[in-house]
Amino acid sequence: MMKPLKNNRFIQALARKPVDATPIWLMRQAGRYLPEYRELRASAGDFLALCKNPKLACEVTMQPIRRFELDAAILFSDILTIPDAMGLGLHFVKDEGPRFHKKIDSKIAVDELSVPDMRESLSYVYEAIECIQVELAGEVPLIGFSGSPWTLATYMVEGQASKDFRHIKRFLYQEPEAMHQLLDKLAISVTEYLYQQILSGVHAVQIFDTWGGILSTPIYQEFSLNYMSKIIRGLHEKLGQSCVPIIIFTKNGHQWLELMLESSADCVGVDWSISMENVKKRVAGRVAIQGNLDPAILYADNTTIEKAVVELLDQFGEAPGHIFNLGHGMLRDVDPEKVDFLVKTVHKHSQS
Length: 352
Known about the structure:
Helices cover 49% and strands 12% of the residues. The chain is an alpha/beta fold. The protein has one domain (9-350): TIM Barrel (Alpha-Beta Barrel). Strand 2 and strand 3 (97-100) form a beta hairpin. It is globular and about 60 Å long.
């Protein structure tokens, strides 16, 4: 049984209930902008070794919680754990990012791809969650996560990060049935993965749809949102009333807010390319909203950061249901002191 939370702002805001101050957590809050993270990663040998060691993953998760007055922790892991478990040979190249030894570039490759035993193949993730919960001791909630099927498929077909996404788009348009087959296998895997995270003790989960925004509207709906909705339905079927809140975030996807509301997610995340005033008007209180400060604002002086925070809070207003976050992940060379100032400023200007 989970311990009662001492700081419940994040969960209350997800339920669109009143809070004493707007909760804040940050995408990529545990990472390379922190000197203690860089030191630990160097001692671990490489990024994957850090992810696959439950004790080290626990330590990385806790580092920003010890430094800042954040209202939630997020599991330290990587969205590509699932394709790695599928045997594609995930590795990281210095200064270039993730690579796969094996790409999914044909219908035959999709046919041969099997859905792994998510409990067994990713046991190190669930062990990390259990370790983190011990360390957190109920101080703040813990967020679990996964990449969306479309985003995972993008890396699997491209074989790495991409600038033009021509391989995945060619595959989508030339082999749409195989593309659906791949996404279906990934949706099954993500559903089970998040289910196991929830059983292990996370208080909420987020589905990161990093590359959904590269698609046209009908293609986004058919090949990205459709599968995120399937995951949400699957978790609700498995867990019923025990299901934790679910957040979906599509980078560059604010034009589809109304479609996202039909997914049954409890919260939609938005990036900085749309005003919070606009988002709030369109969502109209139907779900919680997460976002959406430009991460680059943390390069600015404190006066500029405070002005941006106040403007964003004012745009949302006093209604419940706002979780303050960046519009995307923390940049690698941000000064941790700026993060501390941001967190304190959000709490200061939103206290009721």
